[in-house]
Write a structure and sequence with these properties.
The structure holds two protein chains of two kinds. Chain A contains twelve helices and 21 strands. By secondary structure, chain A is α/β, with parallel strands linked by helices. In chain A, helix 4 crosses helix 7 (about 200-220), helix 7 packs parallel to helix 8 (about 230-240) and helix 11 (about 325-335) packs across helix 12. Chain B is globular, with a radius of gyration of 19 Å. Classes of the chains: A alpha/beta, B alpha/beta.
C-alpha cells in the first residue's frame, strides 16, 4: 500500500465535482486523516474522477506473451486510471474452465477487478460448442465471439439457445465476413479515392439484424461491441422498443477519429472495426446523448512494432488505448454530455455490463480514482505505453488533458 | 520556374499545374532526344536508381529502366521473385538495406496503397511511384497526357473518356487528378460493380453509365484493361457480356467523333476491352503512349533528382 494526501483536489461526489479540498487516501480508502509522514501532492485543482472500467481488454498472455503480458496490461490500466475491465482475448479463447482458472490465477496476482468473457465456441471457430454451463459456474460474466464473425447462422442459434441456460449475455462484434471481403477500411469516399477495399456499413447492419432476430427469437440478452455506424443504432433502438434485451458500446477511437484520417495512410489507424464517416461519428455521439449507447469501450489490443512499421494494408489491425483514453476523451465528452454522464459512460456503465461493482468516491469508503488535469495538454509519446508496444492512433498527437496520477487498489502512481 | 514543388512522385492528386506542366515540357524535350541516333544524355551520371518491383511488371519496369539508362544512371532491378522479401524480410528492412548501398532514387511498385509514401517516410531516397494498389500510377497518367497534348496540341478543354474497371484502376485515378488539373473534362464509365460508389471527393469528373453517351463528345478514349480475376470474384458475368456492353468496337466508335484518339495502358485483352482492328487502326495511339512513357519517366527522374545530378 502506498498512501497519499491529495491537496487542492476536486473530487467527483454524488454526480458532480466538489470544491478544492484535501483527500486522505489511506489503505485503499478515502479516510478522515493520514498517518504522519504521508506524502502530499498539490493537485492544483485537478479532478479526482472515479477510476474507469475498460471493456475489451486483450493482454495476449499466455499464448502470445511475446507481444504483451498481463503485467503489461495491468501497468497500462494503472497509468490510465482503470480499476477493472472486461477481458476477452482473440489470441486466447477461454473455452473451458481450466483455461479460465489459469487466467483468473494470473489476474488475481494484481488485485484489479477484471471480469472474463468465455468463448461460446471452441477456439472461436463456430464449429463446436464450449462448455458454457461450466464456464458460467466458474465465473465468466458472458460469452463472446473473440471479434470474429460467426457466419454459420445455425451454429449461432444453437450456441445462443444452449447458452440461454446460463442467463448470461452474448457479446458480438458485428461484421459480416462475406461482406467485409478483405476490406480494412470504411467503404466511403476516402477509401474509393485511394482505391482501397472498403467495408460497407451493411456488413455491420446485416450482422446486427441477424443477431437481433436471433435474440428476439430465443429471448437471449445480447451486447454489440464497437458499434460504428448510425444505422446500427437505429436497429438497436427499434429492437429495444420491441422488448429485446440489447446493449451496445462504442469504441473510444470511433468518437475521436473518422475515415478522413485515411489520407494519412498511417498504419496506426488500421483497427479491426474501421473508422467510418464523420456523419457516423456524429451519430455515435448522438447515441451517447440519447442513451442508445450504453458505454464507451477501450478495445485495448497490443500489436508489435514490426507489425505496425509497415504500410497500412500490411499492418496488423489493433490499437492500445488504456493509457491515453481519459485525457483524450474527457474534455469533449464532459463538455458535450456533462461530467455525470461522462463518468457513467467510462466507469459505472461498462462495469455494470460486466457485472462488476462500480467505482465511486465517498468519504470513508474504498476509493479508486484518477487525477486529471483537464486543461493541461500533453503530446502522446511511445514511452507513455506499457510493455513493448505503442500502437496508438494518437501517437504524436496532442491530448487536451493529462493524467497527474492514479490511486488504484491502494497504490498511488504518479504518471 | 524550373524546379518541381514535389520532392517525390507519389501520385497526381494534389500535384500542381506548374509541376505537371514542367514534367510534360521536359518530357517533350526528352522525346526529341529519343529520336536521335545517340539517345543518351549524362543527366543522372553518378546516380543510382533501384527499381523495386513487388508486383509483376514487364513494360513499366522496362520503360523505367530504359529511361534511367538513357539518363546515364546506374540501375539495379529488385523484384519480389528474387528478393529477400520472399524470405520474410519486412519492407522497411528491405529499404534500409538497399539504402545502405547508397541508392539515390527508388522506383517502387507494390500492391499496397501508400507504399511509396511509407518508403519516403522511412528513407532519404527520392521515391517514384510506379503503381501502388488501385491508388495511383502517376507516370502512366503523365504519358497519357503527353500523348494527348502531342496529338491534339493541348489538354485544356479536351474531353477524355475512360472506360472500364475504374474501381480497381490506379491508371484511372491518376488520370482523373492529372487531367482535370490540366483543364481537361474527364468522363468515367464502367459497369456498376466496377465503378466506385462514393465519388464525393472525385467530383471534378463526370460519371456516366451509358458508354455511348460517354464516348459521344470524347476527343480521346482510354480503354482500361479488364483483369480476368473480376469474373472469379463475381463482379462480372462474362468477358463476352463485357465486350458487348463496354468494349471499344467499330459500332461504338460510330457514336464518337471522327478523329477520336484510342488509348490503352497495356497489355491489351484484344476482343475484350478493345477490338483488334481498333487497337491497330487509324485512331490508335497506343504505341505512341509506349514511346512517350520513356520520355515522361526520363523527365520525372531528371526533375526529381534536381541539383543532386552531376550533369
Amino acid at each position: 500500500m502506498r498512501n497519499i494526501i491529495l491537496d487542492n483536489v476536486c473530487p467527483f461526489v454524488n454526480g458532480k465535482f466538489g470544491k478544492p479540498t484535501k483527500m486522505y487516501l489511506v489503505d485503499g480508502k478515502w479516510a478522515n486523516g493520514a498517518p504522519e509522514g504521508t506524502p502530499v501532492v498539490d493537485a492544483q485543482g485537478a479532478l479526482a474522477i472515479p477510476a474507469l472500467f475498460g471493456l475489451g481488454l486483450d493482454f495476449k498472455e499466455p499464448l502470445r506473451d511475446d507481444i504483451y503480458t498481463f503485467k503489461d496490461g495491468v501497468a497500462a490500466m494503472t497509468r490510465g486510471g482503470f480499476y477493472g475491465g472486461l477481458y476477452e482475448s482473440s489470441a486466447n479463447a477461454i473455452d473451458d474452465s481450466l483455461k479460465l482458472a489459469a487466467i483468473q490465477q494470473i489476474s488475481a496476482k494484481y488485485g484489479l477487478s477484471i471480469a472474463f468473457l468465455g468463448a461460446f465456441s471452441m477456439g472461436y471457430q463456430c464449429k463446436d460448442l464450449s462448455e458454457m454451463v461450466e464456464l458460467a459456474d466458474a465465473g465468466v460474466v458472458g460469452f463472446g465471439d473473440g471479434n470474429q464473425d460467426c457466419s454459420r447462422t445455425r451454429f449461432l442459434r444453437l450456441a445462443m439457445e444452449y447458452g440461454s441456460m446460463t442467463g448470461k449475455r452474448f457479446f458480438f462484434m458485428p461484421l459480416d465476413d462475406s461482406l467485409r471481403h478483405h476490406g480494412l477500411v470504411h467503404e466511403g469516399s476516402y477509401a474509393d479515392t485511394l482505391g482501397m477495399k472498403g467495408i460497407p456499413r451493411v456488413a455491420e447492419t446485416i450482422a446486427v439484424f441477424r443477431i437481433l432476430e436471433m435474440a428476439r427469437f430465443l429471448k437471449v440478452p445480447v451486447h454489440f461491441k464497437q458499434v460504428s455506424c448510425g444505422e446500427t443504432l437505429k436497429l438497436i433502438e427499434r429492437a429495444r422498443e420491441d422488448g429485446v434485451d440489447v446493449t451496445c458500446d462504442v469504441d473510444i477511437y470511433h468518437l475521436i477519429l473518422d475515415d478522413s484520417c485515411l489520407f494519412d495512410l498511417n498504419s496506426l489507424d488500421n483497427v479491426p472495426m474501421p473508422f467510418r464517416s464523420a456523419e457516423d461519428r456524429e451519430a455515435l455521439w448522438k447515441g451517447l446523448e440519447s442513451g442508445v449507447v450504453n458505454a464507451i469501450s477501450m478495445n485495448h489490443d497490443p500489436v508489435l512494432a514490426q507489425d505496425k512499421e509497415v504500410n497500412f494494408e500490411d499492418a496488423v489491425p489493433g490499437a492500445v488505448s488504456l493509457e491515453t483514453a481519459l485525457p483524450a476523451i474527457w474534455k469533449p465528452l464532459s463538455e458535450r454530455l456533462g461530467a455525470a454522464r461522462a463518468v457513467e459512460l467510462l466507469s459505472t456503465a461498462p462495469a455494470q455490463l460486466a457485472g462488476v461493482a462500480p467505482s465511486k468516491l465517498s468519504e470513508g469508503e474504498r476509493a479508486d480514482l484518477v487525477l486529471l488535469a483537464q486543461d493541461s495538454p500533453k503530446t502522446v509519446e511511445a514511452s507513455m505505453f506499457a510493455g513493448q508496444v505503442w500502437n496508438s492512433p494518437l501517437l504524436g498527437k496532442q491530448l487536451p488533458s493529462s493524467i497527474v496520477g492514479t490511486y488504484i487498489n491502494g497504490n498511488w502512481t504518479e504518471v | 520556374m524550373s524546379a518541381l514543388e514535389i520532392k517525390h512522385l507519389f501520385g497526381l492528386r494534389g500535384v500542381s499545374k506548374h509541376d505537371i506542366r514542367l514534367i510534360l515540357d521536359n518530357a517533350k524535350q526528352f522525346r526529341e532526344i529519343l529520336e536521335r541516333p545517340v539517345k543518351k544524355v549524362p543527366s543522372l551520371r553518378g546516380m543510382t536508381v533501384v527499381n523495386l518491383f513487388f508486383e509483376n511488371s514487364t513494360r513499366t519496369r522496362t520503360s523505367f529502366e530504359l529511361a534511367e539508362k538513357r539518363l546515364s544512371a546506374d540501375t539495379v532491378n529488385f523484384t519480389s521473385s528474387n528478393s529477400s522479401v520472399k524470405k520474410g524480410e519486412t519492407l522497411v528492412d528491405t529499404l534500409r538495406n538497399i539504402e545502405a548501398m547508397k541508392i539515390d532514387i527508388v522506383v517502387v511498385r507494390h500492391k499496397g496503397t501508400g507504399v511509396p509514401k511509407f518508403l519516403a517516410d522511412n528513407s532519404k531516397a527520392i521515391i517514384v511511384n510506379a503503381g501502388d494498389g488501385a491508388h495511383e500510377h502517376p507516370t502512366q497518367a503523365l504519358l497519357d497526357m503527353l500523348t494527348i497534348e502531342e496529338k491534339l496540341g493541348t489538354l485544356e478543354g479536351k474531353n477524355v473518356t475512360i472506360v472500364g474497371d475504374i474501381r480497381h484502376s490506379r491508371v484511372a485515378r491518376s488520370n482523373l487528378w492529372g487531367m482535370t488539373t490540366m483543364g481537361a473534362h474527364v468522363t468515367l464509365c464502367g459497369p456498376s460493380t466496377l465503378v466506385p460508389r462514393n465519388t464525393e471527393l472525385m467530383d471534378k469528373v463526370t460519371w456516366e453509365s451509358d458508354v455511348k453517351k460517354a464516348v459521344k463528345d470524347a476527343d480521346a478514349i482510354i480503354a482500361l484493361r479488364l483483369q480476368k480475376e473480376r469474373m472469379d470474384d463475381a463482379l462480372l458475368p462474362s468477358m463476352r457480356e463485357y465486350r458487348n456492353t463496354f468494349g471499344i468496337t467499330h459500332e461504338l466508335l460510330e457514336c464518337a467523333k471522327d478523329k477520336v484518339l484510342i488509348m490503352h495502358p497495356g497489355p491489351i485483352n484484344r476482343g475484350v476491352e478493345l477490338d483488334s482492328e481498333i487497337a491497330d487502326g487509324e485512331h490508335s495511339v497506343i504505341l505512341d503512349q509506349v514511346t512517350n512513357g520513356v520520355a515522361v519517366r526520363m523527365a520525372v527522374l531528371y526533375l526529381l533528382a534536381g541539383g543532386r545530378a552531376n550533369a
